[in-house]
Write a structure and sequence with these properties.
Layout (H helix, E strand, L loop, with lengths): L1 H13 L2 H4 L1 H11 L1 H28 L10 H21 L4 H6 L2 H16 L3 H28 L8 H27 L7
Amino acid sequence: MLYLVLGLVVFLGVHSVRIVADDWRTQTRARMGEGAWKGLYSLASAVGLALVVWGYGLARQQPVALWVPPVGMRHAAALLTLLAFFLLAAAYVPRNTIKARLHHPMVLGVKVWALAHLLSNGNLADVVLFGAFLLWAVLSFRAARQRDRVQGTVYAPGTAAGTIATVVVGGVAWAAFALWGHAWLIGVAPLGR
């Protein structure tokens, strides 16, 4: 559990700088230069993510059950993760209505993904991992919306074509991950295959 917690502190800590110290981040990035900042940020993120993956894998070998979720939560999680994939796609597909209305769909996707996994998993490692991501996403979304208000950020309006492309990309990515990727990477087949 130690490596999981350490990895979460590093990974989410790096991703929280903008939440808790945006002015410091801006000044440091200007002082270091864009390339050096991104390189250091990427390196710290990669180390944190590696620790999260390793720590979670170790914690799963000796699970500490807190509760046993009802079977129906697996179905709820599948539906919620489909929504999370739509939101993730909306962060990248240009000119879609989802991003135009929600402004920060990737962070919302992390919220939905974390909630889905909290509903369908009852082990301590799951609660630590997904609970930390859910808390981070709540704080990150709030901070991003506050920055938007302060800066007067205006998002481009969405188009029907952009929105349809978002739904198709998100749906295909979800199906591929749910049917094959999750079992291959995590060792769990979420759709019971």
